[in-house]
Recover the amino acids of this structure.
């Protein structure tokens, strides 16, 4: 095998990254065979170790090709190669996995079924024809079925299924696509699906998928068990079925996701770009926000008063089989009651969904950890995360510096947790709003699971300072570790800095709905001078009372009334505003007294509440059914071209303040003159863009800082994000906004972890 006159040498490569559960070892085995090398490859707790022996030129070529030709799901993060004396290996083999105390191998996310498996599933001659759990090393469940690492079958949800002779032969063959594919199975030895009614009685019929498809087509609601939990499925063309789903699920207006059979089907009801098509067909298969084709081609109740659909393509074999039965577009929304965690267990499904679903398409492969669908959007030529979950979690964010181990607990809404160690920050899947015991249980479960599979022992816990957040209460109860409170808006800015690997000071603009300030007020329209461990507030929106506190979030008319009182005082009742005339007079007077007397009306500088106020004043939304609904409505009606701006000014002082009163006054004047709402919306957006660009220019003249970081939930507003980014670029700034993690509170845990890690590294916190 070896050239006689060339000496045999050996090299050991220790590789970290996504190299387990992705066909990496058989790939190394085959590549070594191509170059005639001897040795072994094995999984370790840190990743993969390769020992290769042969002539130096062949070793050079082998290690050059190794990262270049790696499997589609693999990702080499580091490869440390050392020269070794030859050990006299007589073949190249795949050795048994090796456990050590310290584990650092990366866990692979759940990924969509691959084209090879789909071809087999649709081939009547193939032994896996129409098998709904077909998979290989290049696709299928990973994160949701893993109990521990190394990633071997006995440590997954597949341990209860004994491989048949044929599946075992594939599993043991390094040349097979299913070599050590831990979920490998077939109809003889693997999980099975079944269709049941609400009384848990099997539905008559040989083909559960075909029967379920007929039921959906005829208007039934079917609970479908997927990769990371259950979905509720109804016919996307049947408005009555969608309305019934909303009523049963207690989800009045929030958009519902759609699963379409293929790209051609999506193009019949949504406007597609090549970038959208790539996102939809990626192996992560996220929900992608797409502009609607008008007039609407699907049920009007799917996404009411909204210019976009949330669309995904099928990502499990079960989905494909269902849609292969003549269904082209199906509403596929998370199976839960509003604000509760996603259902993942069969028994739990029957207990919690009995009042929602008419039928249940279930299977017997356990889901260890729920994992909701990810949501992305193309904004400013870049893919932006709205919800980072299935397909992405728990892949780490790779950092510029090393940090000590930290657990960060996130916020109250759109909660995620983050485990930080070294140069990697592991953000959990979407946990959701921590508003009930079930959500808190999921939060605790996720912490325990991630700590176990990542083997990270935190030296400190980071959390938001708000004492009423369930995440903060949990963190406060952990008495064995130092607790680091991280201000909400500093965490937002640090999260964006972390994903862009920024060091030093930046101008941070943090715009959102709520976040507790150290002065006890509710912040949300903030300018900070910040680095990764410290911040200083340098500007903000003027304060206004928030009547009823959190109740004002659900009732934007309260914020509209508060701002009008702030501007006009008692003259408010003389205004001939349709907004005021539509209010209940007694209720309006009561709220006005709360504002004037500061009764249950905490002060807020929130940008989100300012958007709410403007949306209410111009007559768009007096009440909302989900967070940010009023601001979304305001953005969607905005005129496409500039319409001028409203007056504004900044106060002097070490902390500058801008009072939106002139803007509110000008909006009221516009309404009185009959100015259309789309023009008012566009002027409002452009005013904010000009106002904050001006502020950044003044700050640069004082500090010399030319980097601006944008973060917070308000930057989900495409017009605000793109407009402010462009204006700042034109003024010579370098602008950074979120790409890898959500700009909303889903990214908060990353910022908390980085700030706490930086403070630990600086010795500011004793661990």
């Amino acid at each position: 095998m070896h050239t006689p006159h060339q000496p045999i040498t050996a090299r050991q490569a220790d590789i970290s990254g996504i190299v387990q559960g992705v066909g990496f070892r058989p790939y190394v085995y085959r590549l070594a065979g191509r170059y005639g090398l001897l040795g072994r490859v094995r999984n370790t707790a840190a990743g993969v170790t390769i020992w290769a022996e042969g002539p130096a030129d062949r070793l050079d070529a082998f290690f050059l090709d190794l990262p270049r030709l790696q499997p589609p799901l693999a990702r080499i993060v580091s490869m440390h190669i050392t020269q070794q004396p030859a050990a006299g290996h007589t073949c190249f083999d795949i050795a048994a996995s090796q456990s050590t105390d310290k584990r650092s191998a990366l866990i692979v996310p759940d990924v969509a079924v691959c084209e090879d498996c789909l071809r087999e599933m649709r081939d009547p001659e193939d032994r896996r024809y129409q098998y709904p759990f077909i998979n290989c090393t290049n696709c299928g469940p990973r994160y949701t079925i893993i109990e521990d690492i190394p990633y071997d079958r006995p440590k997954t949800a597949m341990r209860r299924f004994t491989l048949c002779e044929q599946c075992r032969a594939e599993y043991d063959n390094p040349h097979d696509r299913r070599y050590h594919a831990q979920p490998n199975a077939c109809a003889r030895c693997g999980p099975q699906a079944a269709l049941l009614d609400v009384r848990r009685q099997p539905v008559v019929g040989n083909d559960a998928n075909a029967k379920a498809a007929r039921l959906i087509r005829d208007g039934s609601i079917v609970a479908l068990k997927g990769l990371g939990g259950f979905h509720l499925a109804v016919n996307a063309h049947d408005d009555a079925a969608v309305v019934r789903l909303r009523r049963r699920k207690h989800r009045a207006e929030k958009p519902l996701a759609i699963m379409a059979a293929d790209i051609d089907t999506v193009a019949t009801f949504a406007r597609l770009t090549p970038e959208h098509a790539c996102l939809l067909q990626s192996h992560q298969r996220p929900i992608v926000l797409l502009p609607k084709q008008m007039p609407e081609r699907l049920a009007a109740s799917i996404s009411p008063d909204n210019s976009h659909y949330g669309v995904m393509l099928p990502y499990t074999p079960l989905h494909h089989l269902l849609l292969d039965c003549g269904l082209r577009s199906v509403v596929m929304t998370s199976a839960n009651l509003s604000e509760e965690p996603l259902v993942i267990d069969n028994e739990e499904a029957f207990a919690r969904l009995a009042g929602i679903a008419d039928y249940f398409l279930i299977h017997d492969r356990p889901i260890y950890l729920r994992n909701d669908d990810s949501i992305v959007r193309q904004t400013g030529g870049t893919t932006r995360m709205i919800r980072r979950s299935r397909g992405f979690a728990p892949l780490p964010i790779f950092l510029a510096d090393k940090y000590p181990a930290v657990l960060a607990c996130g916020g109250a809404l759109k909660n995620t947790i983050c485990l930080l160690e070294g140069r990697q920050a592991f953000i959990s899947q979407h946990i959701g709003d921590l508003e009930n015991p079930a959500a808190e249980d999921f939060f605790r479960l996720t912490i325990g699971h991630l700590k176990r599979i990542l083997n990270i022992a935190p030296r400190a816990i980071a959390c938001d300072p708000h004492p009423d957040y369930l995440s903060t209460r949990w963190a406060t109860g952990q008495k064995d570790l130092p607790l680091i409170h991280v201000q909400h808006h500093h965490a937002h800015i640090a999260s964006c800095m972390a994903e862009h690997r920024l060091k030093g000071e930046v101008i941070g603009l943090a715009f959102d709905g709520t976040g507790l300030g150290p002065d006890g007020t509710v912040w949300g329209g903030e300018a900070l001078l910040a680095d990764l461990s410290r911040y200083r507030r340098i500007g903000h929106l003027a304060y206004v009372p928030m009547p009823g506190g959190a109740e004002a979030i659900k009732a934007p008319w309260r914020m509209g009334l508060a701002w009008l009182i702030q501007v006009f005082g008692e003259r408010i009742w003389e205004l001939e505003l349709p907004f005021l005339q539509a209010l209940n007079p007694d209720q309006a007077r009561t709220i006005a007294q709360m504002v004037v007397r500061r009764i249950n009306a905490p002060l807020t500088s929130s940008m989100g509440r300012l958007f709410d106020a403007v949306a209410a004043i111009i007559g768009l939304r007096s009440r909302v059914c989900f967070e940010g609904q009023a601001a979304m409505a305001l953005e969607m009606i905005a005129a496409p071209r500039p319409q001028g701006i409203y007056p504004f000014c900044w106060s002097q002082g070490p902390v500058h303040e801008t009072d939106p009163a002139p803007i509110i006054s000008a909006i009221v004047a516009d309404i009185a003159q009959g100015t259309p709402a789309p023009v008012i919306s566009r002027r409002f957006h452009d005013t904010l863009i000009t106002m904050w660009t001006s502020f950044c220019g003044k700050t640069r003249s004082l500090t010399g800082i030319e980097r601006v970081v944008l973060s917070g939930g308000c930057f989900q507003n495409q017009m605000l994000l793109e407009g402010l980014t462009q204006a700042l670029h034109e003024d010579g700034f370098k602008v950074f906004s979120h790409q890898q993690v959500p700009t909303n509170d889903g990214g908060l845990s990353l910022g908390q972890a980085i700030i706490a890690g930086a403070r630990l590294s600086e010795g500011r916190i004793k661990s």
Remarks:
- Residues 677-703 form the longest helix (27 residues).
- The chain has five domains: 9-94, 107-191, 193-363, 380-501+745-761, 540-736.
